[in-house]
Amino acid sequence: MTYKIGQIVPSSNVTMEREVPAIFGARMGALPERFSFHSSRVRMHRVVPEELQRMNSDMGRCALELADAQVDIMSTACLVATMCMGQGYHRQAQRELQEALASMPWRPAIMTSAGALVDQLKAFGAKRISLLAPYSDALTRVVVDYIEAEGIQVKDFRNFSILDNLEVGNRDPLALLEDVKALDTAGVDTVVLSACVQMPSLAAIERAQEALGIPVTSTAICTARQMLAHLNLPLEAPGAGAYLGSRIGL
């Protein structure tokens, strides 16, 4: 069986269409299930509140397009657009997407990348984390407060104040191996190497986990993990850190 993975992607986001297929592609090399990947895009270029809010208003159209393709699982692929709408908003966003599909004969499982991060941190048992993010100071504080409102303490964070979303996507993921050295990770359960779905991190996840000796994940990995959970498949994929079964460094 081939499972169809659907994502609602900001128009300037390229990373989730690389990292999610890469995670599932590695999994297909080790396990029998097959996957295909499908996207609908919504306009957003600069990571500022006005564009994020405008993007949210157009997601219903994207949901309808993906339902036309009869995807098995559908996820938004922008964390901060959800979190900037208010604490707990990922639940409302999910309901709104479900309502957009109320008249459709095909209704896939629906999730958000913001919800995936907090849900999978909880599912893994993480109570105290440190994280890296590309956002402005103000938006990073929104993300930190959102996560803490979900009952997960953020011990430390670093952000890079990059407003251009394409610039975020062009960042070298291996630069995170130096960036993470500035984080206070003592006593944390997990390091979120990239709290942003657009900031590439997959290539650095296992190297960071090996160096730190604690589980390392990202919003992209948590999104893939929640997709697998919705599909009732084992939460495993080679090369994607502890949250998808790797014990390297632990």
From TrEMBL:
Pfam families: Amdase (PF17645). Its EC number is 5.2.1.1. The active site is at C78 (nucleophile), C196 (proton donor). Substrate binds at N13, C78, L79, V80, Y135, N165, V197, Q198. Keywords: Isomerase. The modification S-(2-succinyl)cysteine is found at C78. It comes from the Bacteria. One of its GO terms (molecular function) is maleate isomerase activity. It catalyses: maleate = fumarate. PANTHER family: BLR3294 PROTEIN (PTHR40267). Homodimer. Catalyzes cis-trans isomerization of the C2-C3 double bond in maleate to yield fumarate. Reaction is initiated by nucleophilic attack of cysteine at the double bond, yielding a covalent succinylcysteine-like intermediate. Belongs to the maleate isomerase family. This is Maleate isomerase. It comes from Achromobacter pestifer. The lineage of its organism: Bacteria, Pseudomonadati, Pseudomonadota, Betaproteobacteria, Burkholderiales. The gene is maiA_1.
